[in-house]
From TrEMBL:
Superkingdom assignment: Bacteria
Designated name of the protein: CHAD domain-containing protein
Pfam families linked: CHAD
Species of the source: Streptomyces goshikiensis
PROSITE patterns: CHAD (PS51708)
Residue span(s) of domain CHAD: 10-314
Transmembrane segments: none
Length: 314
């Protein structure tokens, strides 16, 4: 376990947690301002993408910290804000997820079909085999429709009174953190570190329950357990981040689980497309190959996480 930054943890539990939450609230407001400024360029612009990523990241860090260190805050306030931030980050993530899934699948189709260059998804089917081209067109229709719906939901959410209430609450948080009068006065090693250890223990138990031995065949029924480990790892990482610890290893492990999630969802998308009625056999075959490719990516990501989490002895 990494040791806390003693310069950071020299104050009370309220001092340390308050500083972290204020910093994340400021990051949220900065990303929101960037998002508003990039509105004219559309959500696909570099500025819009970066702003949405910043909003999601700050929202997750605040909500995760309010969950782990709930007793140090005004609990009723923390519960309400955490619920709203989870809603917001989930809404913002949907549009990005559909776009990233389409890109991943199209890149895999081009790679599997042996195309040396990587054309854009639309209007580039001539470079592919017939089955891959039709599979790509089918995936593009389905995922573009899902992304369009998610984009509409995002715009509706960002224009709602619910979102404005969340933004107002975060703006208040940037200057003042509602804390529990007793717990906030406690020492960091007596209050925050034990609470962070609880989050770590939950993660360790979830990891121990995974089918980690190398060579375990991929099973989509296990994806849920891996996704839960990913969520718990994120909560653990943010808790240690709030304590000023080096979270490089945790971030690397989280990246492996992000790739696992992306590949698992891409495999599911290709399987869903393969169940489309009356598709040509060549299209179904290409989708089957694509599904198998993403399953291999899932297995590779699981092995990468295992190596990071439980490195083999030298």
């Amino acid at each position: 376990m990494a040791q806390p930054n003693h310069d950071l943890t020299a104050g009370t539990a309220g001092d340390v947690l308050g500083a972290y939450l204020r910093a994340q609230a400021t990051a949220f407001l900065r990303a929101l301002r960037l998002h508003d400024e990039s509105g004219a360029h559309g959500s696909d612009s570099a500025e819009g993408t970066e702003a949405a990523r910043g909003l999601r990241g700050a929202a997750r860090r605040i909500s995760g910290s309010l969950s782990t260190f709930r007793v140090v805050t005004d609990s009723a306030w923390a519960d309400g804000l955490r619920t709203e931030l989870v809603w917001l980050s989930s809404t913002l993530a949907d549009e990005h997820a559909h776009g990233a899934r389409l890109q991943r699948l199209m890149e895999a189709l081009h790679r599997l079909s042996g195309t040396p260059e990587l054309p854009s998804p639309r209007g580039s089917a001539g470079a592919l085999t017939v089955g891959s081209a039709r599979a790509g067109a089918l995936l593009e229709r389905q995922l573009t429709l899902a992304r369009t719906r998610a984009h509409s939901a995002t715009l509706q959410a960002l224009g709602s009174s619910r979102f404005h209430a969340v933004a107002d609450a975060v703006a208040v948080l940037a200057s003042e953190v509602p804390l529990d009068a007793v717990a906030a006065r406690g020492r960091v090693d007596e209050v925050l570190i034990p609470l962070a250890t609880v989050a770590e223990t939950r993660l360790s138990a979830a990891v121990a329950a995974l089918p980690l031995p190398a060579g375990t065949p991929y099973s989509p029924h296990e994806d849920g357990a891996w996704h839960e480990v990913r969520r718990l790892l994120r909560v653990h990482r943010y808790a240690r981040e709030a304590l000023g610890e080096d979270v490089t290893r945790l971030a690397s492990a989280g990246s492996a689980l992000d790739r696992h999630r992306d590949a698992a969802e891409a495999a599911a998308a290709s399987a869903t497309a393969a169940r489309t009625p009356r598709i040509a056999p060549a299209t179904a075959y290409a989708l089957g190959v694509l599904h198998a490719d993403q399953r291999h990516e899932v297995e590779a990501s699981r092995a990468a996480f295992q190596d990071l989490w439980q490195p083999a002895p030298v």
